Amino acid sequence: MIKIPFDLGLYREKMRHYVVDRPYEQVFWDALAFAEKAHYDQWRRSGDAYILHPCSVAKILAEEMDITDPEILAAALLHDTVEDVDEVSSDVVGEHFGSYVQAIVEGCTKVTHRSGNRQVDSKLVHRKIFSGAALRPEVMLVKLADRLHNLRTLRAMPRNKRQRIADETLDIYAPLATVFGLFNMKREMYNLALSYKFPKQGAKLSNHIKHLADSKISQHILEQLRIAAKDARLKCEISRRIKDLWAYYDTANRILLQQIETPVEILIIVNSVEDCYRALGVVNQTFRPIPRTIRDFIANPKPTGYQGLHARAIISGQRFLFKIRTSEMERKAQRGVFRNWSSRQGKQGKFILELQEMLDIIGSDETVSYRELIAAGGMKENYTYTPRGDLICLPIRSTVLDFAFRVHTEIGLTCVGAEIRNQRVGPDYVLQDGQMVNIIRSREKVAFRQKMLQLCRTPKARAELAKSFRQRGQRVAQEIGKATLLQEMRRYGLPRDLLDSEGMSRVVASFSLKDKERLFRQIGTGRIRLPEVIECIRQELFSGTSFLAKPTGEFNKIKLKMLDPVFIKLSSCCRPNPVDKANCALLTTKGLSVHNKNCPRLHEIKFQREDAIDISWERTTPISRPQSVLFPRAGREEILAIVASAPSHMKMHDIVVASDQSADRQSWRLHFEVAELRDLQKVIRHFDRSGISYEFTLDF
């Protein structure tokens, strides 16, 4: 390997322009000297001195992101020292450069404990970074600059590592650059990552893009606009941008498209906001705009702070996008809104607070996919409004529930629907651009269906739903765990009050748990088996004294007061009915798997007595969902007789022909509602007495 030294003298001259005469300037120069010493005689695979990398990261922050706070730049210079230099710890950085620089460097430092599983380790690394960035968004700004420089020098890496870094960039870092409003960085990240991810297809597309650049249509448009602007005495700069690989990447399907709708953008830079609207008039008079495609992001800026006017027109059979901005709007559009910013400035703006909230969610909640949440955060927006006229900007295809959670967490948790244009819609209703949304709430928190987790588009809604599902499951698991443990103790002749004794804390501690409630939840999900708990009680509370013979025979019993699909799964193999008494359930980590005792599949599964329970439900258990029953082959008179003599508690919605079979025997589906399980039991008995074959599976 040929070693290539780094010219620190030239680097100092370049960086002097950004940090001279700024507060904490000396911190930057001290950090540069410290990093030079720490990385002495370290070399990159390309042959460059390692100090090139942290210096380049700081330079990207200053030159390309307008981040010139000397302490943030100092943290960029030091971001690899704790991880790569044995003598340097987080405390050492804090002693030399203060707690602010230490916090950023610590947030950028990868976890040191590795499991050996690359996928698990990757999740740990990223969640640590996200958690650090939730407190100090500077952490993510440094990591984005770090990733961009790594991409620029990726060619020196082996092919498998190039592919892995490209995948990670497409899934995490490029979308995060979009969320942060760093659009120049986003485009370059996508372009570089895609060139490594799809080398052959990317090369073909690049030739197609060059062909577009040679097209005379866009050049003709520029000439016409310049003439029209001169006639209108409008001073402006007009240029074009041919969209690169980044615009052809379909993030949802992870493929490169062959063509896109608007491959060429016309950029118009003017001197003032008033001139923006004048320029829009010039564009519309020169090229007829496509109806309802003009977007005013000056009056309604995007959450990232992006401003400008957009208009679209079809010229010679091709779509063109016109973007009109002032010079300052152009700077923000490319470099973001982080000029002269730091998290120490006190009260932060709404955009920063929303970034921190998203980073906190994806860094702390393991039940949701951070890749999905990051992708959702970078989607194009719809503009919706509260009844007071407050703007709520949401990703496209967001639901009423997304809107409710964006307004306030409690409003989301109690949302049962909304009123839009005097029409009531459900929480899963997909919002359209420009709608005013009046949320309808219940007094109690709503038990949402699990499908809402896939329908929602915002990180906050998904995280709050996942949290509520987890809490609902934990409540059921805790109830089951406590009830089954008490029954098992009774089998061994142990008194109930043992659970409340001081010695029980030793039993809990032996399983490395904090309290009894966690122990009950672990038992209720089958993670800790009853024999283990009984044996632990014997050792901790009875000094290992043997009990009577080990009990066998019947399952433990549990009677529930709710039907919650978050924790209760009715097995598809036997379709158990909750009104039957011959049901049992297996304790699994994903919840209760309910079977009928006569189920052939159940008899094939190997399990111990303690791993199963007899399960039943209180007759007053509420049923909140509409139900349906299928009569696969019945005559019209038979169906009418069933409907006419139905129990009074059965509220019928409709009955429809499911499929034609013959003139007198058809398939019918009856939709109905009942309030409680005992009402459903009466309905089932009514169907049984009719003597007609039917198929019913509870929807809950």
UniProtKB/TrEMBL annotation:
Gene Ontology MF term list: kinase activity
Keyword Disulfide bond part of the UniProt annotation: no
GO cellular component: plasma membrane
Start and end residues of each HD/PDEase domain: 46-160
UniProt keyword list: Kinase, Transferase
GO biological process, one term: guanosine tetraphosphate metabolic process
Annotated ranges, domain RelA/SpoT: 240-347
Database matches in InterPro entries: Beta-grasp_dom_sf, HD/PDEase_dom, NT_sf, RelA_SpoT, TGS, TGS-like
Superkingdom as given in the UniProt entry: Bacteria
Family listed: Belongs to the RelA/SpoT family.
Entry protein name: GTP pyrophosphokinase
Naturally occurring in which organism (per UniProt): Desulfofustis glycolicus DSM 9705
Organism classification: Bacteria, Pseudomonadati, Thermodesulfobacteriota, Desulfobulbia, Desulfobulbales
